[in-house]
Amino acid sequence: MNESLLEVNHLTKYFPIKKGLFNRTVGQVKAVDGLNFTIFKGETLGLVGESGCGKSTTGRSLLQLLRPTTGEIKYEGRNMVGLPPEELRRLRKDMQMVFQDPYASLNPRMTVGELIAEPLDIHQAASGKERTRRIDELLEIVGLNSRYADRYGHEFSGGQRQRIGIARALALNPKLIVADEPVSALDVSIQSQIINLLQDLQDQFKLTYLFIAHDLSVVKHISSRIGVMYLGGIVELANKRELFAEPLHPYTQALLSAVPSPDPLAKKSRIVLPGDVPSPANPPPGCAFHTRCHACMAVCRTDKPELRDVGGRQVACHLYNQA
Ligand code: SF4
After folding, report:
1. CATH no. of 4-320
2. Contact call for residues 32 and 60 (beta carbons, < 8 A)
3. Does the N-terminal or the C-terminal CB of the chain have fewer CB atoms within 10 Å?
4. CA 123, CA 128: separation in Å to the nearest integer?
5. 302 C-alpha to ligand 1 centroid (Å)
6. Which of 287, 291, 294, 307 to mutate to test the pocket of ligand 1 (most atoms within 8 A of CB)?
7. Which pLDDT does position 322 carry in this prediction?
8. Cα(97) to centroid(ligand 1), Å
9. What pLDDT shows up at residue 1?
10. Rounded-to-integer distance, Cα 81 and Cα 76, Å
11. pLDDT at 321
C-alpha cells in the first residue's frame, strides 16, 4: 500500500495577468503554489477545499493538461515535467481524468461508442472487431447496456453520462484516475451509485485515485487519506479517520465544523470564518490563512509555515512548530 505511484515536489502553476495595449504581464495568479505530496499505489487520495483553492488546477497539472510553472511530477519514479511530447503521450495512457460535468465533457455530435473509443483511436490501441468488443465490454463494466453504443449523450441521464465518462477513462486500462468533482453535478441519490461504482472499479482493476471535491462528506466516503487545500497550498494531509477525529489545522477545523453529523444528538458548533478567501493574484504574506484565522499570531503574518510531520500527519501551521 505504501509504494509510491506519483510524487509531487514543489509544484507551482501560475497564470499570467495580462493588461494594456501591449498585453504586458502585470502579475501572476498563483493557482498552485508549492505543493508536495505523494499518491500511493491502490489508494484514494482526496483533495478538498473551497472553490478557487487550486485543487482542479492541481489535478490538471498532474496529468499535464496544464503545463506546471515549476516543480516535479514523478510517475513511477520518472519526472514527467518537460518530457518530449511522444514520451509524455505514452505515459499519459496510464493516467486518465473523469471530469466534473458529464454534460460538458462529452461531445454531443459523437455517439456513445465513438466517445468511449476515442482514447483507443488516438493511441491506436484497437480497431475493427476488437474496438467494438472493447466498447461493449466497457459499457457493461460501468453498468450500461452495450446496445447504448449507437446512441447520443443527450439521450441519457446525468448519472448515465457520468458512467459513460468513466467507461471512456477506463478504455486504455489506466493505473491512475484523477476524478475532478465527479459527482457534484448529480442528484444525491445518484452520487452514491457513482461513488460505489468507482470503488468497485478500484477493487476490480487495482486503480489509484486522486479524488477532488469541495464536499468533505463525499471525500470522506471514498478516500483513504485526505489533503486539505487553501489558496494554492496543502494545509493538512492526514489519514481520513485521524483527520475527522481530530483536525489540527484551524482551516480544517472550520471546514469540518460545517459537515453535518450523522448523530442528531451530537453537539457541534460551527466555525464561521470571517471575510472571503483572498485573491490568489495577491495572496497574504506569511500564512495564507492568517487573515481569517482565529489563532493568528505575530509570526503568522510574516513567515510562511511549511507542511511538516505532526504525529503521523502533515500540517502547515505555526501552532505545531514546537511539536
Ligand atoms: Fe492560523 Fe497561524 Fe496556523 Fe496560519 S500559521 S493557520 S494563521 S495559527
Report:
1. 3.40.50.300
2. no
3. N
4. 14
5. 11
6. 287
7. 61
8. 34
9. 54
10. 13
11. 82
Confirm or reject: Cβ of 289 under 6 Å from ligand 1: yes
Minimum CA distance residue for ligand 1 atom 7:
290
Of 228, 318, 321, 322, the residue with max ligand 1 atoms within 8 A of its CB, to mutate for a pocket test, comes to 318
| Pocket perturbation via mutation, ligand 1, pick of 234, 236, 251, 297 by most ligand atoms within 8 A of CB | 297
Which positions of the chain have pLDDT values less than 50?
323
Report pLDDT for 65. 92
- What's the 236 CA to ligand 1 centre distance in angstroms? 12
pLDDT for position 101: 73
C-alpha 140 chain-centroid distance: 26
Q: What is the pLDDT of residue 267?
A: 67
Question: In a 10 Å sphere around its CB, with 0-12 CB exposed, 13-18 middle and 19+ buried, how is residue 228 labelled?
Answer: buried
